[in-house]
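F.,

This is the one I mentioned.
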């Protein structure tokens, strides 16, 4: 009986320590905010401060438009901020915005007022797909090599993601 209780106790510790529903981030999911990676991107406009602690900012063509992901966790190219299946990331925040080609321009997008724009958000407490309470994404440049812009007014606990970004293009 003692052995069985000890075994059950060990199993409960293992279950509490890991979530079988999630995966660890792959080792090849490195950040891309180094000077070398950002070499293809223009500088942010004067007065626009970069998002602090950003691990990745990636842009790619997807769904006949642009898919932009910014995150404080390293993510491989093509994975969105909330629908990736990775284990929770302590202190991490991420935002993915999908903008269809027919509305894609160097412009400002209110994330609540454009139902055609896909939005995902992740923080250490929750993730959300399709619903966000506030925020804008302003795109300064859209080129074949990089997208630059600024996130403002993000409410979803993502104040950490407010600021400028330089998102090199990638292909999964």
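My design for it:
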């Amino acid at each position: 009986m003692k052995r069985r209780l000890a075994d059950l106790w060990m199993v409960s510790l293992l279950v509490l320590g890991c979530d079988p529903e999630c995966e660890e981030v792959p080792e090849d999911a490195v950040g891309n905010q180094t000077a070398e990676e950002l070499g293809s991107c223009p500088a942010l406009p004067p007065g626009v401060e970069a998002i602090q602690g950003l691990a990745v900012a990636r842009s790619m063509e997807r769904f006949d438009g642009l898919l932009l992901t910014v995150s404080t966790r390293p993510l491989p190219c093509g994975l969105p901020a909330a629908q990736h299946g990775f284990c929770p990331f302590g202190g991490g925040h991420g935002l993915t915005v999908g903008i269809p080609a027919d509305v894609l321009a160097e412009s400002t997008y209110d994330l609540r007022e454009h139902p055609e724009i896909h939005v995902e958000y992740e923080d250490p407490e929750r993730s959300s797909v399709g619903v966000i309470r506030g925020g804008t994404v302003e795109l300064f440049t859209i080129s074949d090599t990089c997208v630059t812009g600024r996130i403002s007014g993000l409410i979803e606990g993502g104040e950490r993601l407010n600021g400028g970004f330089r998102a090199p293009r990638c292909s999964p």
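The longest strand covers residues 65-71.

Talk soon.
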